[in-house]
Amino acid sequence: MSEKLVPADNIAAPTIMRHQLTSGRYGLNTTDRGQRMDNGEIYFGIWKNIVDRQGRQLSGEFDLFTTDHDTRYLSETRRGELATFNQDIQRVADLRDTHGHDGIMLANDAVIYEAIRTGNYAAIAKWHVGVKELVHGRNIDDKDVQPDNLYAHKDKGALRGTFTDKVGSVNVHWYWTASARRVLPSYVYVVAFTNGCVGWGLKDNAALSSRPVRAELRPEA
């Protein structure tokens, strides 16, 4: 009796594994940052050696994905418009079936790290606004901890030309992160994609851009 093959799209497997099945690739390596997956999302590396706001080392390594559009072009809410942080995380949370994945409300970096610490990996595998090191490479203590980040890879592969990295009107080149300041938690860190400059913005005041990310737990070798 012949064996019936299950279509790759129906396999409950991580994106990288499904991509290998459908593309004939045998794995992604450091040259693949910026590669578009079969579902349209873009791979931008690995998140590992994660340390939370309390300095706790968190377990797990994660494959990182993003979109080729800023949030304002993925959502019908205030489409085409910049948004405050509070408005923007809601727009990301409301995303449905964007490259095959929904959004989730992860209100700040503490919530994101807690999801990792408690093993709630399904949460961070949905679209959300990324913590500072995933946007810029440096954590809230200004330590360079994450080589694979959106700013570092903005000109690679399918990511090239998708970010606003030229100074224009208002704040289109500034991108929100989910990381709050230690001293003033009503402010979150923001990154200029023109030059990597870091600042901070009041959550319910400034209107900026953002780029959703998601992180899938890597299978153990």
Category by helix and strand content: alpha+beta
| Lateral strand order in the biggest sheet | 1-4-9-5
Give the helix proportion (percent range). 10-25%
The number of helical segments is 5
Largest sheet: 4 strands, antiparallel
Share of β-strand residues: 15-25%
Radius of gyration from the CA trace?
A: 17 Å
Unreliable runs, pLDDT <50, ≥5 residues?
1-11, 21-26
Mean pLDDT: 88
How would you describe the shape?
Answer: globular
Number of domains: 1
Question: How many runs of DSSP E, i.e. beta strands?
Answer: 9
* Helix-strand topology string: HEEEEHHHEHEEEE
Spatial gap, N to C terminus = 33 Å
What does this structure look like?
This protein has helices spanning 15-23, 85-93, 109-117, 121-124, 132-135, and strands at 42-47, 50-51, 57-58, 62-66, 128-129, 174-180, 187-192, 198-202, 212-217. 16% of the residues lie in helices and 19% in strands. The longest helix has 9 residues, at 15-23. 41% of the residues are buried. Mean pLDDT is 88; it is low at 1-11 and 21-26. Strand 7 (187-192) and strand 8 (198-202) form a beta hairpin. The protein has one domain (8-217). The chain has a 4-stranded antiparallel beta sheet with strand order 1-4-9-5.
Could you outline the blueprint of secondary structure elements for this entry?
Blueprint: H1 15-23, E1 42-47, E2 50-51, E3 57-58, E4 62-66, H2 85-93, H3 109-117, H4 121-124, E5 128-129, H5 132-135, E6 174-180, E7 187-192, E8 198-202, E9 212-217
Antiparallel strand pairs: 1-4, 2-3, 4-9, 5-9, 6-7, 7-8
